[in-house]
Design a protein that fits this description.
With about 700 residues, this protein is α+β, with helices and mostly antiparallel strands. It has 24 helices and 18 strands. The strands form six sheets. A four-stranded antiparallel beta sheet has the order 2-3-1-4, covered by helices on one side. Strands 6-15-5-16 form a four-stranded antiparallel beta sheet. A four-stranded mixed beta sheet has the order 14-13-18-17, covered by helices on one side. Helix 3 (about 20-40) packs across helix 14 (about 375-390), helix 3 (about 20-40) packs antiparallel against helix 20 and helix 16 (about 410-425) packs antiparallel against helix 17 (about 430-455). It is elongated.
Length: about 700
């Protein structure tokens, strides 16, 4: 068979056009770095369930009336929609909700449109109810995006101020923060709006022969601004308005409720008060009442960028309009974990390169190990570029896939470089060895990568919501391993064809001094820039340069000699002993003993697994937050807010004492504690240390 028939076309082209491949590699690095820095960061992937929600408000009606007039007609029509798998309906006082779950084959936008069409058909019926103002009840059709509903940051306002004063400052912050493009909404918890209460004396009302309708109509028509038409004066048209809206609740006292048989004012039969509404939300920090702002980000936006802008706005707000003695505490910062995961990925990449090069140096030398080590960052850069182009974000599942693929990236490169190295040792020229060496193992390497990807294919076929969550894992692995295959077949082919050498040489003293100067300048410069500008990327480059400097001198002083001893002494002796060992266990009756021993070890391992099963699938871990849901029986629903607040307060106080009694603790992270019926609690901070496992 001729050498030409053994070549792999793409790799041979890369060897002959090395400059083009080097330019393309530079483009990969640039686009990968841009994608890495611009990709949105978030905790978990954005999953939109294939559910459409239909909510309808029908004030002044019982749950039975809401079900009969609103829910039943809608539910009957929605059940007949093609693609609907399940319909769940709930009726409450003044409110009704329907949840329609569609099959995965129906897109969420198409499902919403189908629901809206059916809702419009039901609304057109003559039996559809009307509100008190004459307009028809308008059901709201929407889907639920969990990532837009979970707050990414809690801002707690506290100080020597009333809750209404804190609320005013919170509203200013709310308007300011909602101007950030990445922020969708900011909710205020812990304080409610005020309302005007008209406490009617039933005896006085009866004596004055006034009905509730008289009071309602009097307040309604007095609190109204009317249009008086247009007036043309001196060639201009002016609008005339009769302003009658009440601004001060005290003005209600002088409203005339009845004329006939004497004038009856509202103050004669009722007491008017301006007070807070019934409390629906509670917010506390360290058992103290606060006003809490929940920051929610937009779908597909960068969480870390959003929180950085929020913190910058808070800093400017303190300088401009917030009082100095107003305390602003931040909790539930979701960016900490995401940023930590991204930093860990960067550390894994750097240490992966270093460890791979150290291992390969002992078998192929320093220069050849660089070819394989380059596969890790180049594959990652390609993966970042492709994932960013398809709109994926850097979330937990994507990062898990990247870390999982980190150990598989070098497999293709090792096989390619090692086979080229073996051909060069046989006497082939560098270019010919690269073409023939890669051609000999091209299809086995491709097949090996394909079989690895097929092992993760079932994750992509997982149905339902969990499947939408897990699909990011096989997508990331597919892109990463395919990128590593491309790097091995194209980039490594060009590198080996242009620079590979079978003779490993130590770093000369002249080169060591030159590279020392370069690494010191780069390291010191970027470390200073990183500390001045608080840039992790700049500090990372500086630290990597200093680590490279240390490794270079270690290689010159000691590692080079170790690699030579390993290649020419230790490894050949180990290989010879291994041959002798295999010859003994595979000859004569020893082969049968070896087979029986292997089968016995398999049976023993299965027996041990059955006899000592694992009690937990996941390792024990201290949770970052604890969320408790409290539900009361129907007879207590009218008091659920007060009861939930009482239970949350008692539970939080008990755990607060339990945590703070413990010793040897430095600082306990802030934790959300309870959310039920508007009750939003946070576990306290303990200045004496991290919570031990038994504190939970």
């Amino acid at each position: 068979m001729s050498h030409q028939s053994k070549e792999f076309g793409i790799s041979s082209w890369a060897v002959d056009n090395r400059v083009t491949v080097y330019i393309f590699t530079l483009m990969i690095v640039i686009t990968g770095l841009i994608a890495y820095t611009t990709m949105p960061r978030e905790d978990f992937p954005e999953i939109i369930e294939n559910k459409v929600y239909i909510s309808s408000v029908f004030p002044g009606n019982s749950a039975e009336d809401v079900e009969k007039l609103i829910i039943k007609p809608l539910e009957k029509e929605i059940k007949n929609i093609s693609g609907v798998e399940k319909v769940t309906a709930s009726s409450f006082q003044d409110y009704g909700m329907i949840v329609a779950e569609f099959s995965d084959k129906v897109g969420i936008e198409a499902a919403k449109q189908k629901i809206k069409d059916k809702v419009d058909n039901v609304k057109a019926d003559t039996d559809w109810p009307n509100l008190d103002n004459g307009s028809k009840v308008e059901p709201n059709v929407f889907e639920l995006n969990i990532s837009e509903e979970v707050p990414i940051l809690n801002i707690n306002l506290k100080g020597n101020y009333t809750t209404q004063q804190l609320k005013k400052y919170g509203e200013k912050l709310q308007d300011d923060l909602e101007e950030i493009p990445e922020v969708k909404k900011v909710d205020i918890l812990g304080v409610d709006d005020k309302e005007v209460e008209i406490a009617v004396d039933i005896y006085k009302m009866t004596a004055a022969q006034v009905s509730f309708d008289d009071i309602q109509n009097a307040v309604k028509y007095e609190n109204m601004t009317l249009s008086g038409g247009n007036l043309i004066s001196q060639g201009s048209r002016n609008n005339i308005r009769i302003v009658g809206e009440i601004k001060d609740p005290k003005e209600l006292e002088n409203i005339v409720v009845k004329h006939n048989g004497g004038t009856v004012y509202l103050k004669d039969i009722a007491q008017v008060a301006f007070k807070e509404k019934e409390k629906t939300t509670y917010a506390r920090e360290n058992r103290a009442e606060v006003v809490m702002l929940n920051v929610k980000k937009r779908s597909g936006q960068n969480m870390i960028s959003a929180l950085d802008q929020v913190k910058e706005r808070l800093k400017l707000a303190h300088e401009n309009y917030l009082p100095k003695d107003l305390q602003v505490e931040l909790s539930n910062d979701q960016s900490d974990r995401v940023e930590h995961q991204v930093d860990e990925l960067s550390n894994h990449i750097i240490f992966g390169i270093v460890l791979v090069m150290i291992v390969l140096m002992f078998t192929m030398g320093l220069r050849n190990s660089l070819f394989v080590g380059a596969a890790i960052p180049l594959s990652m850069m390609i993966a970042f570029t492709i994932l960013s182009a398809f709109g994926l974000t850097l979330n937990t599942m994507v990062l898990f896939g990247l870390v999982m693929g980190l150990g598989l990236l070098v497999d293709d490169g090792i096989v390619v470089v090692d086979n080229v190295f073996a051909n060069m040792k046989k006497g082939m020229p560098r270019v010919q060895a690269s073409k023939i060496g890669i051609g000999e193992i091209a299809w086995p390497v491709i097949s090996s990568t394909a079989t690895t990807l097929m092992a993760f294919l079932p994750f992509a076929l997982w149905p339902g919501t969990m499947g939408k969550f897990m699909i990011y894992f096989p997508i990331t692995l597919t892109v990463t391993l395919t990128a590593s295959l491309f790097v091995a077949m194209v980039v490594n082919a060009a590198m080996t064809g242009g620079s590979m050498d079978i003779e490993d040489k130590n770093v000369s003293i002249k080169s060591a001094k030159k590279y020392t100067l370069i690494f010191v300048i780069i390291g010191v410069l970027f470390v200073i820039l990183g500390n001045v500008n608080d840039s992790k990327f700049a500090r990372g480059i500086g630290h990597f340069a200093l680590i490279s400097l240390t490794l270079m001198w270690l290689y010159r002083i000691k590692i080079y000699q170790w690699t030579q001893d390993f290649q020419h002494s230790f490894f050949p002796n180990l290989e010879e002993k291994y041959k002798i060992f295999l010859r003994k266990i595979l000859s004569g009756r020893n082969a049968w003993f070896s087979l029986v021993g292997i089968i016995g070890m398999l049976i023993l391992s299965v027996f041990l697994l059955i006899a000592f099963p694992r009690k937990s699938c996941f390792p024990e871990n201290i949770p970052r937050q604890i969320i408790t849901y409290i539900e009361y029986p129907p007879r207590n629903r009218h008091r659920k807010n007060e009861q939930s607040d009482f239970v949350c307060r008692k539970a939080s106080d008990r755990d607060y004492e339990k945590i703070c009694r413990s010793e040897n603790r430095q600082e306990l992270l802030s934790r959300k504690y309870c959310f039920s019926s508007g009750c939003w609690r946070r576990k306290s901070k303990c200045r004496r240390g991290f919570c031990q496992r038994n504190a939970f």
